[in-house]
Amino acid sequence: MGRSSVALVAAGAGLVLALTACGANGTSGGGSGGAAAPSGGAASGGAKVGVILPETATSARYESFDKPLLDKALRAEGLDPDIQNAQGDVQKFSTLADGMINNGVKVLVIDAPNSEVGGAVAKKAQAAGIPTIDYDRLNLGGSSDYYVSFDNTRVGALQGQGLVQGVGAKPGANIIEIEGAPTDNNATLFYEGQQSVLKPKYASGDFKLVASQRIPDWNNQQGGATFEQFLTANGGKVDGVLAANDGMAGAVITVLKKTGLNGKVPVTGQDATPESLQAILLGDQYMTVFKPIAQEADAAAKLTAALAKGDKAAAAALATATSRDPKGNRAVKSLLLTPILITKDNVKAVTDQGSVKASELCVAATQAACDQLGIK
Ligand code: BGC
């Protein structure tokens, strides 16, 4: 049953609002300077655009997927990208943004370590006439023109479903939740999605919530240490772990290995990193959520290209969804993509899409599973 419901939500089918892009920086976005002439053109000489990613340590996605895929997609749009990573340092994030603004980027794409710094950077860029796009994480109380991401509540719901499927019928199953950063709106949405599935299970007594903790900065080590404390305090008993991403899942599995519980306790994840897919093939991790970053990068690149040309109608036509910013009390024009639940049965869907190569997954310990699943 869970299986066929996996990828049904079509995020892009909404209607296009007739509102114009509005606002104080209405004349911004490449009307002047070097952007206007060449933007459909050759690889060199395209409009300069900036991208700032938040971290590397919290997830392998940023360096393995986002950076190369954004570079490729932005170049395919004839743009000249500068892609940097703030390494979780808010000061560095602002400094990188200042450099890009001074350097005359036509659009700034930001995936911020937290909403405060993301919002501040967007304000500064916009004051200089540069439109901004919130990439992956929405900056609450921010002012970016657009938001590109996945349906993050749906990501959480898939994690909840995966956990239910993995635990199976085990009345009173002990569940520990290791959640994402309290400062990341995505982590809030993941949690909401998870609870839409798990709350009724807790209420009925099917599942027993041992403990739940949001981990500052998505710090994987701290996630592992917190899990270990909860496990010890519960007398070493656990029947399922909601880990909010693959980094957390890896840290949890390391702890489970100490007492031989790995492979016996389903652990969730997110990001479909090569490490997590291997852990799934080995049976140590039950599921992950595959967010095809190629689609996210492509969507961001198309939107960036439209904004770099000052083509607000084209940009608005791409962003057919809206996201609610409860802090800023506004609806942000959005482009939201569809996540996919991955268990051992369909790991091949990830290699088929090309974001991870079979050669990265199929090593001595996993070769039998790869053969059985036709991953090659
Ligand atoms: C992203 C996840 C990632 C997490 C930690 C979230 O905002 O959506 O893909 O695992 O941050 O980096």
Structure characterization notes:
The protein contains 13 helices and twelve strands. With 376 residues, it is of the alpha/beta class. The longest helix has 20 residues, at 185-204. The chain binds beta-D-glucopyranose. Residues 55, 58-59, 61, 136-137, 180, 184, 186, 218, 245, 270-271 line the site of beta-D-glucopyranose.
Class based on secondary structure composition and strand pairing: alpha/beta
Question: What composes the largest sheet?
Answer: 7 strands, mixed
Strand line-up of the largest beta sheet: 2-1-3-4-5-11-10
User: What oligomerization state is this entry in?
Assistant: single chain
Helical segment count: 13
Descriptive terms for the model:
disordered N terminus; three-stranded parallel β-sheet; single chain; alpha/beta; binds beta-D-glucopyranose; 376 residues; 13 helices
What does this entry show, briefly?
With 376 residues, the chain is an alpha/beta fold. The protein is 41% helix and 17% strand.
Topology (SSEs and partners):
Layout: E1 48-53, H1 61-76, E2 80-85, H2 90-102, E3 107-110, H3 115-127, E4 132-135, E5 146-150, H4 152-167, E6 173-179, H5 185-204, E7 207-214, H6 220-233, E8 240-243, H7 246-258, H8 274-282, E9 287-290, H9 293-308, H10 312-318, E10 321-325, E11 330-337, E12 340-343, H11 348-353, H12 358-361, H13 367-373
Parallel strand pairs: 1-2, 1-3, 3-4, 4-5, 5-11, 6-7, 6-8
Antiparallel strand pairs: 9-12, 10-11
Helix pairs in contact: 1-9, 2-3, 4-5, 6-7, 9-10
The protein binds beta-D-glucopyranose (BGC).
